[in-house]
């Protein structure tokens, strides 16, 4: 009896820890940033703090069967020479009205001061409605055109709290 109870507890603990991971992939087209602030730092030539605000419309991607409509991001970059490190906070607006909150760490490459490509790692920091308790993480890549628009691809995994 005692052995059966221990076995049952072990099986239940394993089942509780075995949460299904769902794959996520998406594509988006990003407008030119509607806000783009740059402040030069006087410690060395080419050192700039940059804050941008941008909206991306998803052409592909869904979470828990709900299509991703758009993502609105605010990003801070510490730029030196032709590379920048950044932090991004964003909100995904879902087709059903739910919201998903995102945080990302970014490495941005530049050429002659113009943004070229943005690579990074993201994680979900929560959600609303059916996506409350959403967890997950992954990577992204954005190619930035000369006019400031971009195309982005995301990949990752997620789980929704039940």
User: Under CATH, the topology is which?
Assistant: AOC barrel-like
CATH superfamily: SO1590-like
The topology string of helices and strands comes to HEEEEEEEEEE
Measured between the Cα atoms of the first and last residue, the distance is 32 Å
User: CATH class, please?
Assistant: Mainly Beta
What is the domain tally?
A: 1
Q: pLDDT below 50 for ≥5 consecutive residues: which ranges? A: 1-18
Structural class by sheet pairing and helices: mainly beta
* Helix content bin: under 10%
- Strands across the major sheet, in which order? 1-3-5-6-7-8-9-10
Q: Taking Cα atoms only, what radius of gyration do you get, to the nearest Å? A: 20 Å
CATH architecture: Beta Barrel
Q: Output the number of helix runs.
A: 1
Number of strand segments: 10
Largest sheet: 8 strands, antiparallel, barrel
Shape: elongated
Portion in strands: over 45%
The average pLDDT score comes to: 88
Would you write up a description of this structure?
- The chain is mainly β and 162 residues long.
- It has one helix at residues 2-17; strands spanning 22-30, 35-40, 48-60, 62-63, 66-80, 83-94, 99-111, 114-127, 135-144, 150-159.
- It has one domain: Beta Barrel (AOC barrel-like).
- The protein contains 1 helix and 10 strands, in the order H-E-E-E-E-E-E-E-E-E-E.
- Mean pLDDT is 88; it is low at 1-18.
